[in-house]
């Protein structure tokens, strides 16, 4: 009998798994039908749990138990329509001997595509062989063709003709020299990444071993979110109120309600203001050039989320904060790059970006986004595939239309954040950005980069995209240059993508080349993606 086993990985948080269960059921029904149409039978590797009211693998413990019942040689499909914690599956997938196919539904409603890309990046880092697919309805020619190939051969080969190795591109001399000089400076004067609790939300792909970082001149300072919380208690009400008033005076709009459990409140925002000051003080104490706060685990049980804090830290213009001992302004006139969800690959990227952009005298604000979703858009002015780049925290107001006046703060969804906290939300301004991603493959650091144009969409389209994803979070409408949707999905080895603005397309090209040269000089395996 032609038999395929299917598993569905989920969140660690019960509320998220319960709320996302209907979408997973619909996705699995369509996917199962597509596989059965090819003459195969699908057997689910674990049942729906009536007590938990969902059918996801929701812990590493459960994942290990499930894989005890899945034959090691069996073809295995991992079906994802939600965010998933990769560590739930890694023990089983690392030992599985049969062909593995990761599949996601092409939808922005729940971050299934984001979960798929994280799992793919984690499997790549772990050296586990796998194939991957995605579809809106699991009936399109692209999906059926590749599914048929996987069922027959156990592997899929996607088109990655958009990728060019660094050595095969003539990098302009001035940009190359700039990048190499920045790399040499980093090696000679090491930088510290402040890691507030390593390993967020199952992102195994986001942890960089010290032996790969240290030769670059980058070292980890492992910090604790409990220390961040403890230091918040030493920030006075007056200091928190001063940060809050600064934001109000700049035009930030806080969308408040009366219920602490479901609404954003001033109390939650003031706690975030204390976290902002606390983060700067700890970073200053340990000499951090960039920091990452985990926030979705541990800290979420103690205090409101860190999103507003992260966006402010990534901005050059931000509320002043002072050392507790000597009233010295901390990181005055500078952004303190923050890598969301303690993604250390993004932390290294942000560190190098900050130095390159400052040398070029470009605004150095940078952030990561989730590669959340996308669809084609056409009107009288634009005819292109426009991606939704969206992230819970980290996007700086300098990236938004209107800056601080275009910045909104909404309550984080209760299904993720019981104690709330305001986001740093806005619509990214039109312009040119350099995008990039550092990842680990074959035990080495690798770096992909390219260009994207951020476009302005009509208000109704922007609101529709927010409605179909997460309206509380900042959004970027990105048109990748010279890369199709399927090429991007086939190549990208992470749920995250780093972005930074340049003055124009020519400036973006210069910055991209300089950054690629820096990464190559640091020893990373560098590739250009799309039109360069």
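^ Assign residues to that structure.
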């Amino acid at each position: 009998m032609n038999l395929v086993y299917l598993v569905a990985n989920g969140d660690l948080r019960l509320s998220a798994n319960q709320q996302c269960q209907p979408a997973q059921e619909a996705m699995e029904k369509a996917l199962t039908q597509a596989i059965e149409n090819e003459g195969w039978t699908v057997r689910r590797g674990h049942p729906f749990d009536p007590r938990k009211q969902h059918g996801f693998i929701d812990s590493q413990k459960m994942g290990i138990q499930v894989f005890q019942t899945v034959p090691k040689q069996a073809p295995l499909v991992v079906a994802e329509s939600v965010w998933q914690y990769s560590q739930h599956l890694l023990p089983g997938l690392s030992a599985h001997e049969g062909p593995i196919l990761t599949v996601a539904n092409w939808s922005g409603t729940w971050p299934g595509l984001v979960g798929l890309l994280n799992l793919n990046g984690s499997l790549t880092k772990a050296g586990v062989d796998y194939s991957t697919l995605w579809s809106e309805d699991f009936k399109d020619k692209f999906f059926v063709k590749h599914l048929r190939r996987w069922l027959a051969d156990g592997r899929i080969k996607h088109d990655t003709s958009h990728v060019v190795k660094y050595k095969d591109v003539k990098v302009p001399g001035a940009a190359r020299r700039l990048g190499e000089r920045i790399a040499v400076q980093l090696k000679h004067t090491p930088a510290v990444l402040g890691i507030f609790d390593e390993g967020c939300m199952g992102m195994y792909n986001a942890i960089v071993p010290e032996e790969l970082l240290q030769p670059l001149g980058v070292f980890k300072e492992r910090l604790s979110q409990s220390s961040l919380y403890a230091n918040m208690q030493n920030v006075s009400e007056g200091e928190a109120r001063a940060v809050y008033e600064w934001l109000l005076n700049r035009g930030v709009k806080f969308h408040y309600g009366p219920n602490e459990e479901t609404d954003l409140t001033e109390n939650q925002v003031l706690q975030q203001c204390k976290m902002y000051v606390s983060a700067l003080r700890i970073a200053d104490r340990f000499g951090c050039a960039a920091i990452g706060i985990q926030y979705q685990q541990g800290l979420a049980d103690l205090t409101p989320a860190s999103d507003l804090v992260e966006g402010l830290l990534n901005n050059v213009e931000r509320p002043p904060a002072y050392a507790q001992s000597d009233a010295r302004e901390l990181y005055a006139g500078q952004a303190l790059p923050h890598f969301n969800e303690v993604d250390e690959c993004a932390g290294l990227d942000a560190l190098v970006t900050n130095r390159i952009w400052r040398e070029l005298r470009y605004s150095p604000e940078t952030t990561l986004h989730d590669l959340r979703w996308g669809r084609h858009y056409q009107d009288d002015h634009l005819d292109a595939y426009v991606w939704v780049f969206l992230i819970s925290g980290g996007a700086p107001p300098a990236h938004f239309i209107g800056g601080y006046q275009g910045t909104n703060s909404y309550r984080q969804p209760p299904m993720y954040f019981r104690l709330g906290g305001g986001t740093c939300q806005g619509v990214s301004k039109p312009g040119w950005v350099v995008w990039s991603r550092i990842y680990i493959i074959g035990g080495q650091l690798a770096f992909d980069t390219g260009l994207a144009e951020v476009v302005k969409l009509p208000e109704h389209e922007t609101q529709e995209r927010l409605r179909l994803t997460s309206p509380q979070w900042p959004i970027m409408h990105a048109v990748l240059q010279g890369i199709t949707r399927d090429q991007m999905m086939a190549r990208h080895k992470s749920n995250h993508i780093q972005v930074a603005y340049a003055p124009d397309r020519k400036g973006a090209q210069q910055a991209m080349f300089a950054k690629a040269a820096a990464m190559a000089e640091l020893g990373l395996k560098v590739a250009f993606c799309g039109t360069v």
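The mean pLDDT is 97.
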